[in-house]
Design goal:
Elements: E1 5-10, H1 15-21, E2 28-32, H2 43-53, E3 57-60, H3 74-95, E4 98-104, H4 127-142, E5 148-153, E6 156-157, H5 164-178, E7 182-185, E8 189-190, E9 193-194, H6 195-208, E10 212-215, E11 222-223, H7 224-237, E12 247-250, H8 270-276, H9 283-292
Parallel strand pairs: 1-2, 1-3, 3-4, 4-5, 5-10, 6-9, 7-12
Antiparallel strand pairs: 8-11
Helix pairs in contact: 1-6, 2-3, 3-4, 5-7, 7-9
Length: 299
């Protein structure tokens, strides 16, 4: 019998963490941590966790993801998104383990208008993207390339947690009941990515010992407006809501936010799908599956 692969997971209670917990493959000895067990803002604690558990892999699914709030909490975002992966990588360099660092499409500025390849230069627009990019750099500086897998993803959502899909479901129900429309930004384009598929990609990367820069999202392209319309239509079709609200497109300028967001952040996943041996699913197919996992919508 082969020895189990010991994996130290962060972000256990987040939406990706919960999907990872639901899909742990055979042969994995999992040490799952949340904020109570491991404060990602504490670099010494991150190093100590690696030294204590001596994992074969750290799967760093935890992050500071409040994009707008990060503009006013740059130090905390930096500690979690850059300090933690740097600390994990430094400790793993000594213990011999590997790091799977989950990153984001927000490390790109969105100006090129065609899908971003993994090797392209980074140019984040805001604090969140900048701290995630710095986390990538610190991990790369501390670990040999063959012991580091950087997996960027986009527009993550699932049946639990705080995400765009669950917010839109609540708004569809309340606005439709009131006879009021929803307004959603239509000039930011990317790809929604369901946590189930992303979790499968993470576990496959560990199972295959994949290293290097990789991208993973679901297939296709959408604006936030497209995503909101599809959420309402599919949810009504599945009986989650009585009827969708009318969705009206607006521009980014119509909905100013503290953080700038890339106007186009599609990720080129071609090479990563081949390396992982996984086919992607269209984002609307994935959305239908996520909605089927939601038992009811609370006000």
């Amino acid at each position: 019998m082969p020895e189990p692969v010991r994996v130290l997971l962060t972000g256990r209670d987040g939406q990706l963490g919960r999907a990872l917990l639901a899909a742990v493959p055979q042969g994995i000895e999992l040490i799952a941590t949340g904020r109570q067990e491991l404060d990602l803002a504490d670099r010494a604690a991150c190093r100590a966790a690696v030294e204590r558990h001596r994992p074969d892999w750290v799967l760093n699914a935890g992050a500071y993801t409040a994009v707008d709030r990060a503009e006013g909490e740059a130090a905390l975002a930096e500690a979690v998104n850059a300090g933690a992966p740097g600390a994990f990588a430094g400790a793993l360099a000594a213990t011999g383990g590997r790091l799977l660092q989950v990153s984001t499409d927000f490390v790109f500025n969105g100006e090129q208008g065609h899908p971003y390849r993994p090797e392209q230069a980074l140019s984040p627009l805001g604090v969140y993207g900048a701290t995630k990019a710095e986390g990538e750099r610190r991990a790369q500086a501390a670990l040999p390339p063959e012991r580091l897998c950087l997996l960027r993803t986009s527009w993550v959502y699932g049946p639990v947690g705080a995400n765009f899909c669950l917010t839109m479901l609540r708004l569809h129900r309340s606005r439709a009941a009131a006879g009021e429309p929803l307004t959603v930004v239509a000039d930011q384009v990317g790809c929604p990515t369901a946590t189930g598929g992303l979790a499968a990609a993470c576990w496959r990367a560990i199972g295959r010992g994949v290293s290097g820069l990789h991208h993973w999202s679901d297939c296709g392209a959408a604006s936030w407006y497209d995503f909101a319309v599809a959420i309402g239509e599919l949810a009504a079709g599945q009986g989650l809501i009585e009827a969708p609200a009318t969705v009206r497109p607006i521009t980014t300028a119509d909905y100013p936010t503290p953080a700038r967001r890339p106007s186009y952040s599609l990720l080129d996943c071609t090479g990563s799908r081949a390396a992982l041996g996984l086919e992607g699913q269209h984002w609307q197919t994935a959305l239908a599956r996520v909605l089927a996992q939601i038992p009811q919508i609370r006000p």
